[in-house]
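# nightly structure sweep
# worker-07 picked up a monomer target from the shared queue
# config: single-sequence mode, recycle default, output format = structure tokens
# input follows
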Amino acid sequence: MKRRFLALTLAASMAAMSLGAYTGVSAEELSEVDQIIAEAQTMTMEELALKAIEESNGATFYGVGNSSRGSSALPLFIEYLQSIDSSYTMEYEWQQPKNNKIFEQLTADSLKDTGTFSMTLIQDGNQIESKMVQTGILKTYIPLEWAEANGTTADEYDGYLPLQTLNKVFMYNCTGDAVYDNCWDFVAEGVHALYMDIDSEIVGKNFLYMLTEDTYATWLKEAYDALDDEDKAYFKPYIDELAQDAEDLGLGENGAYALAWIKLWVESYNEQTDDGPICNTLVTDSATDQCGLLVYSKLRSVEESDSVSVNNIKVAAYEDGYTGIGGFGYCHYLFVTDNSPLPWTACAFIQYMTCTESGFSAWGKDMGGYSSNPEVAEATEATYQHSTGGYNEDGENVYDAKNDRGYDWWTTTGELVLEDPEYCASVSFTVGSWIELLTKYSDSAE
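# output follows
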């Protein structure tokens, strides 16, 4: 044990020096939480659990997040700690601010010498980067076992720690004759896709930002090239009109295609309050030919009836011959607050959620939500079998739309647009200001 302790101490010291070099400050100038993170990143789950037990036994743990399921994961975490020390107890409170107030809440809490919140589970890479990371309010912790599972180290890894990637995918009601076999069909004349408003769920705006990145703008150009001449003739004036804007905004050679798609989308989508109602609408037999962009996992909650069925919709990217982007992927990220009152426990909780199947189980039941740890993702799929979620007990493929193709398929063949926090932050003023000048369909419709 003494030898192991000395090894851990040396590793922590080296980690702190490395972190100091990364942040541009000396090891002595690192905050207390930075130093704890540096040491925690050298520790196994069980070693960190012992530190958490010592720190938080009898205490109350406060977390805040965009997902309410943190409150489901915390009691499982406590049970895990109790399996190591049966005398361990910890109360907890998990808050989920509405209307994107989490950034204001964390900012206000950061003004205290010792904060209320120990950690957060948070989305919207743009605001995380500009409001939380650059200001030093939130700190990234990379668990040892997560890094190993991803073939990297805490020092080598560049980015935030994602708990999972979620996808929003294009779906359409198939009870009529409408065909959506190209991503440009969702912005065609007369089409009003159902979508959560970009000013109420900000990750939706990040989706639009990402379309201007060279990779995704090229995907849009390739999808345009696959259109027939009649459809090209409809979209080409928009593309030509926006060529100068694309140049002024510093976008790449296919930037005009991205701006044209964004303009047509913002000026045509039918603003909705939540993805649940969008799903409930599309799966009815009365929503003939309607379409939307929504969280894939919502299909899991559909209750079949005479007028409602998953078979009333199709996932566009799953259909033979579909061309172009299949949807948008964004992450739930995990951070320790810089003034965390229970930093060891926060690190242990984060490690538990990202490195164990039980820790991820609060989210694991949903298709379209992929653990960032490949080992946990594999175990989760073995338990829930999302890839065959549409099959019945007799092995019949009853609801094909519920057969999740998986993260690797979506991010390649499915052409899922993935949120990049740094890129979103870099264009949020330029492209963001341009988007603000567009007139939403819901604002102008009678």
